[in-house]
Design goal:
467 residues, alpha+beta, 57% helix
Length: 467
């Protein structure tokens, strides 16, 4: 049924699933932007080993510094002769770690950025709702077209079977000498033409089935067929002006453009805020520990510099800091201002897009409304035409079998009957399709992908009067 087809399309559509992911991504962007109101806290740590070999040589003795007998030669414990040297190999194990906090106290770009992210989320949600509307219309049109092609196959098949019956009657009359050979040849030509029409109708039906299957995203080995009977939709319950007002009210296509305009305006403000000062608080604290070992000591020239050597030592330390940082972009050759102007121009372009889209919606509604009224009128005429053509065909065939009428009148009357049946079918389908087009512009759809979707095939009485 059409409701089943819509349910399958809403569940299987790859385009809808992609838009659901777009909504989820926009929601994540809002959550990320909200994080700018909170401080950031990070931990840091480092550790490793460092080894080196150094050599120190005294190029002048230290006995002339006047530092007392400890520096006098030859027995002063701190005396270093000229050329005294020491070579040392040392190694150090060390580790440090701590926490660092940063918090933007004053950031003029923060609030516009969050608002822009929220507007982008609103745009994606409205785009999702509008895609639901469009998909329902596409599935409805494909379903009604498949119904039409199915019925055309039945009509043309019945027409061909009727051709065979009339051809056999004509052959019987020809054998009895009641009709000329021309009637038989004409009936064979008509049968061949009607057979070609049926062949094309079968091909059109196969194509329509595959089109619906693609919309429903069905496997290639699954072929849908309509189970609903062809039932004409009622007359559209609203007049043209009420339809337009209801279509403008809360239209997700228009709301998406407004959300885009809001996002661009906020992005422009956030970009321009790059020229304003930014005040941030920082604080960090941590500790470090290291162990140093000294070994492989080599003395030369009388020795040097060994008084402060420690064979193994440990150093521990703690530190912290806090303060404020102020950054203010004073000159960037107009880059930031140019970007802000570009976003403002895009915002102005979006306003024009809103006006153009509003005009497109009005034109779509007017076209569907006028065609719906015309289709209803044509359907009424087509029904009368079918009744008259069917009665005429019965009379002319009976007259032909009794020899009171020619085969040419039978053919013409049969063609008029088939044409009237096709016109009635086309008018019925046109009524349903134009109704679906009008419904698409007013159909309420959820903007949250997590909410259930309830397809509506007829206009609810509350849609035209909602506040």
């Amino acid at each position: 049924s059409l409701e089943q087809a819509l349910a399958i399309a809403f569940a299987n559509s790859a385009t809808l699933q992609a838009q659901r992911e777009q909504v989820a991504a926009a929601l994540a962007s809002v959550q990320a932007a909200m994080g700018s109101y909170w401080p950031t806290i990070s931990a840091f740590a480092a550790g490793g080993y460092e080894g080196n070999r150094s050599s120190t040589t005294s190029n002048k003795p230290n006995d002339n510094l006047g530092l007392g007998p400890n520096f006098e030669p030859p027995n002063g414990p701190f005396y270093v002769p000229n050329g005294g040297s020491i070579g040392i190999t040392s190694g150090e194990w060390g580790a440090e770690g701590g926490l660092q906090l940063n918090y933007a106290l004053l950031d003029f770009a923060r609030t516009p950025t969050v608002r822009a992210a929220r507007a982008a989320l609103e745009r994606q949600r409205n785009t999702y709702a509008n895609q639901l509307r469009s998909l329902q219309l596409e599935v409805s049109e494909a379903y009604y077209s498949l119904q039409q092609d199915e019925q055309l196959v039945r009509v043309y098949d019945a027409n061909l079977r009727n051709d065979l019956v009339i051809l056999q009657d004509t052959l019987d009359l020809k054998q009895a000498g009641l009709v000329p050979r021309l009637d038989v040849l004409r009936r064979r030509a008509i049968q061949a033409a009607d057979e070609e029409t049926l062949i094309q109708a079968l091909a059109d039906r196969a194509v329509a089935r595959r089109q619906l299957a693609v919309l429903l995203n069905l496997p290639a080995n699954v072929t849908p067929s309509p189970s609903d009977p062809i039932v004409v939709q009622p007359r559209w319950p609203l007049d043209l002006e009420a339809s337009l007002l209801a279509a403008y009210r809360g239209n997700p296509e228009l709301e998406a453009i407004l959300a885009t305009r809001t996002a661009l305006a906020q992005q422009s403000q956030a970009t321009a805020a790059g020229l304003l000062p930014k005040l941030s608080l920082f604080a960090n604290g941590g500790g470090s520990s290291s162990q140093t070992s000294v070994g492989d000591i080599e003395l030369g020239g009388g020795g040097c510099c060994g008084a402060t050597l420690l064979p193994l030592s440990t150093t521990n330390g703690w530190d912290w800091s806090a303060g404020l940082t102020l950054t203010w972009l004073l000159f960037d050759a107009g880059s930031t201002a140019g970007q802000a102007r570009a976003l403002a121009k895009l915002e102005a372009a979006t306003a024009q897009q809103y006006a153009a889209t509003r005009n497109d919606i009005r034109l779509r509604i007017e076209q569907a409304f006028f065609n719906h009224e015309a289709s209803l009128a044509k359907l009424s005429s087509a029904r009368r035409g079918v009744a008259a053509a069917l009665e005429a065909f019965r009379d002319v065939r009976l007259r032909y079998l009794t020899g009171l009428d020619s085969e040419l009148n039978v053919s013409n009357t049969q063609d008029r009957l088939i044409n009237s049946l096709v016109r009635r079918l086309n008018a019925t389908v046109a009524v349903n399709i134009t109704y679906a087009k009008l419904l698409k512009e007013l159909l309420p759809m959820p903007r949250d992908p997590n909410l259930p979707i309830q397809p509506q095939l007829q206009l609810s009485s509350s849609l035209g009067t909602q506040p």
